[in-house]
UniProtKB/TrEMBL annotation:
Transmembrane segments: none
Domain TonB-dependent receptor plug: 69-179
The organism's place on the tree of life at top rank: Bacteria
Native organism: Sphingomonas alpina
Record's bilayer topology term: Multi-pass membrane protein
Identification of the protein by name: TonB-dependent receptor
GO molecular function terms attached to this record: siderophore uptake transmembrane transporter activity
Length: 809
């Protein structure tokens, strides 16, 4: 274990909570239990739910037991279990498409997403996104290279609802995230036994089972257990089982006179194919398939490349893909010490592995003859070109592509503890708290390992000998490792916060808060020797210029990191009526450099000043939430892998935008949900290899929107629903230099469900029904334009259908 947790802190917090719980007499629920009741309401079958459009209870972004969404003085979205079912997200990140202000690229598969928030500049992954389970961060660093937190959590039927807060109060609570904080609220038990079993299948061969059951363990104790298991080759079928695994979640809640205690645990063991850019033909904003390669379903990996013996002699299996094998458990404890005084304890522990293995293309396809010149210099010719598997001559006019075997292994661990006291006196509520997090990552990377393949689906390995007799390949490999990591990192965060809320009049409420946080990181890294000819023979080109770990070690380039920052916020909320309100907020948020940035020598701590104006309307006819925001972002260091090596970009950005989400219910059974985001986001004092100030922040469109009409009708003992979603993503740029254009696209999804006798539910959903080619990423491993014609890009997944049947009791 890379770090040693304070055992008193870890072993003492939960038993203390349980001891107080057992000593207290039975009594009514407090505010935290009311929030749990709301979670149970959201988890109930649709026929048992009341209209909660004005009464959704939000926990994330609040100091204590939650607040009505209509009363929240910040931008927040709540997605209940029924909405999740109809959205049928292909991954955890895919669900975030429905959150305004968020750009989520889920085209990398069920893992490996890129998530961007409100114009915050980022090179990828999910740098300004924190995922929570039951109000506690799953893993405190929001992102590490080759690890974003949606990789550590799966959406399944044990989720009651998902809450997502942007900006606002997020800079104060939990890990102090100034971007996006997403909280997954678990289903819990009630005094009535209930549950469901659901089997689903897709037209691309996935089979999945979901189940959960809950009920009483006693007069004041309830429990829930459930999870899922799934397997398939994936939409982009690599000719082997690429997607496989499951998750199991359980919790127990005990209610007592002055509060409650919730104990939960989750085990995830799941991996999926890491989907990467593929060849696509681009002519301006017009996209089409590269000859012989389906942009919607094609993949470069195949049976022949699944197992590769890299130059070190180690065998790498592409079926390992990207995923996680982790355990996450925690305790939530709420206790009313005295009238007006409450204590809240949130603790979580997580440990496991999060690995990434993939076949990473280096550049666009070209003929083998052109490749010889581009790779080995002017005048280079082909002496012989043959298939590795089966032999046979290959013409020099054959389209080829170089792709590397990248392997990243991470052992991660974390402990998080958040303890707060709430003092309520009359119309004033003061909350003070302390936050502690300890986390580590042991990394083993091996990048590069390029091999020469035919540029087609399930590319075949090629052996190349140059005309002058030099041997360019070994079993298809044209190079060894170009970058290695053997590192152990440890981090600690200590924070103290105070938030005060005062209800001046029944209509007017103000709040303010401050957070102090200290961030420390230590690291130990093995050094690389670059440019090594591992066999000493200059004519065997495949192992020249290799990066080799040399057995010497060093610390972080600029030494162990330690820094402190203050964050603060002030807000005002005014209710014109119980159904119409408005808020204004200013916040200063901070982020800290984590392991990979510090390894690359980046010690900048970004800060963001955020200004928000919001309008909230909740009536039986209309629910609408609109937020105008402005962000001023400074001090960012972005690391990109260019030519297999980290390249750092420094600067900031300024963003003005508006988010809107709402629902119209004009007649019984018919509703239209709407969501839209406009972003005017530009770099400011930002440098890559050039000054890109004034250019559009990469990978975030100016416009994106979605509209979802739904019609439900009861007839006899059955209830039918038809729903569809049309979404639009505007023009973006894959790179900060604004050279790689990602054209705008529309996407159409739809579904129909039938519930019979309130127990059996049949559902069919279709994704990307028009089979549109929509690009989410160009080639992030080069700087500037890719040129015209054939490019590398990562398209959204092609058309697919999911069929499910469920039984509820």
């Amino acid at each position: 274990m890379a770090f040693q947790i304070n055992r008193t802190l870890l072993l003492g917090a939960a038993p203390l909570a349980l001891a107080i719980a057992c000593a207290a007499p039975a009594h009514a629920q407090d505010a935290a239990q009311a929030a749990a009741s709301a979670a149970d309401q959201a988890a109930a079958p649709a026929d048992e739910q009341i209209d909660t459009s004005t009464d959704d209870i939000i926990v994330v972004g609040t100091a204590g037991g939650g607040t009505r969404r209509q009363d929240a003085a910040f931008a927040v979205t709540s997605i209940n279990a029924e909405d999740i079912s109809r959205l049928a997200p292909s991954s955890t990140a895919d669900l975030l498409h429905s959150v305004p202000g968020v750009s989520a690229e889920s085209s990398g598969g069920q893992n490996g997403a890129n998530i961007f928030v409100r114009g915050f500049p980022s090179g990828g992954d999910a740098e300004f996104v924190t995922l929570q389970s039951s109000g506690v961060p799953i893993f405190p660093p929001p992102t590490l290279s080759f690890l974003e937190n949606t990789q550590l959590f799966r959406i399944d039927d044990t989720i009651a609802r998902v809450e997502a807060v942007r900006g606002g109060t997020g800079a104060l609570f939990s890990s102090g995230q100034p971007g996006l904080t997403v909280n997954f609220v678990q289903r819990e038990g009630s005094q009535t036994a209930k549950g469901s079993v659901r089997i689903s299948a897709t037209d691309f061969g996935e089979v999945r089972g979901d189940a959960w059951v809950s009920g009483p363990l006693g007069a004041n104790t309830t429990a829930m257990i459930g999870g899922y298991y799934a397997q398939s080759n994936g939409i982009r079928d690599p000719q082997f089982r690429a997607e496989k695994g499951g998750q199991i979640t359980a919790n127990i809640r005990h209610d007592f006179g002055q509060g409650s205690v919730l104990v939960y645990g989750r085990y995830l063991n799941d991996h999926g194919q890491w989907l990467l850019p593929v060849p696509v033909a681009q002519n301006g904003n017009s996209l089409s398939d590269f000859p012989g390669f389906d942009a919607q379903t094609g993949v470069l990996a195949g049976r022949e490349t699944r197992f590769s013996t890299i130059n070190t002699g180690r065998v790498v299996d592409l079926a390992d893909g990207r995923g996680a094998k982790i355990f996450n458990g925690g305790v939530n404890f709420d206790y009313e010490i005295a009238d007006g005084l409450k204590i809240r304890e949130r603790a979580s522990y997580m440990k496991g592995s999060a690995d990434t293995v993939g076949l990473v293309p280096d550049g666009a396809p070209m003929t083998a003859a052109d490749y010889a010149v581009a790779k080995y210099g002017a005048g280079s010719t082909i002496g012989s070109l043959t298939y590795v598997d089966g032999g046979g001559a290959v013409p020099g006019s054959t389209q080829v592509i170089q792709a590397g075997i990248w392997e990243v292994r991470k052992q991660i661990e974390s402990f998080v503890n958040d303890l707060s006291l709430e003092f309520k006196s009359g119309d004033n509520t003061l909350t003070v708290g302390g936050y502690f997090a300890a986390y580590s990552s042991d990394d083993r990377w091996n990048l590069g390992n390029g091999q020469l393949l035919t540029a087609e689906e399930h590319g075949r390995r090629l052996n190349l000998t140059l005309g002058d007799g030099r041997q360019a390949t070994r079993a298809g490999f044209v190079q060894g490792a170009t970058f290695n990591v053997n590192a152990q990192y440890d981090g600690r965060d200590y924070a103290a916060y105070a938030v005060d809320e005062y209800q001046i009049t029944p209509e007017l409420r103000i709040d303010g808060g401050i957070r102090w946080q200290r961030h420390t990181v230590t690291g130990r890294l093995e050094n690389n020797s670059f440019g090594v000819d591992t066999d000493g023979n200059p004519n065997t080109l495949y192992n020249n210029g290799t990066a080799v770990l040399n057995g010497t070690f060093s610390g972080l380039p600029k030494g162990d990191y330690s820094g402190s920052k203050l964050s603060w916020t002030a807000g005002i909320n005014y209710d014109f009526s119980s159904q119409v309100g408005a808020f204004a907020r200013y916040s200063r948020g901070n982020s800290f450099p984590f392991f990979d940035a510090l390894r690359d020598g980046v010690t900048i701590a970004p800060k963001v000043d955020s200004y928000e104006l919001g309008l909230k309307v909740s009536t039986p006819l209309v629910s609408a939430y609109a937020t105008l925001f402005h962000n001023d972002f400074t001090g960012l260091g972005v690391s990109r892998i260019i030519n297999n090596l980290p390249v750092i970009s420094i600067g900031g950005a300024r963003t003005t935008g508006i988010e809107f989400e709402g629902s119209i219910r004009p007649v019984q059974g018919f509703s239209i949900d709407l969501g839209a985001t406009y972003l005017d986001s530009k770099y400011r004092n930002f440098f890559t290899n050039i000054d890109v100030s004034g250019l559009q922040v990469q990978r975030q469109p100016k416009w994106q929107w979605r509209v979802t009409p739904t019609y439900e009708h009861d007839f006899g003992g059955a209830k039918a629903a038809v729903f569809t979603t049309l979404s639009y993503i505007g023009d973006r740029f894959s790179d900060p230099e604004n050279k790689q254009v990602l054209p705008k696209y529309y996407k159409l999804d739809a579904g129909v469900s039938l519930t019979v006798s309130e127990k059996i539910k049949l559902q069919v959903t279709g994704d990307n029904l028009t089979n549109r080619i929509g690009l989410t990423e160009g080639n992030p491993r080069i700087i500037g334009a890719q040129g015209s014609g054939t490019i590398l890009a990562r398209p959204i997944l092609g058309r697919s259908f999911r069929f499910s049947v469920g039984y509820s009791f």
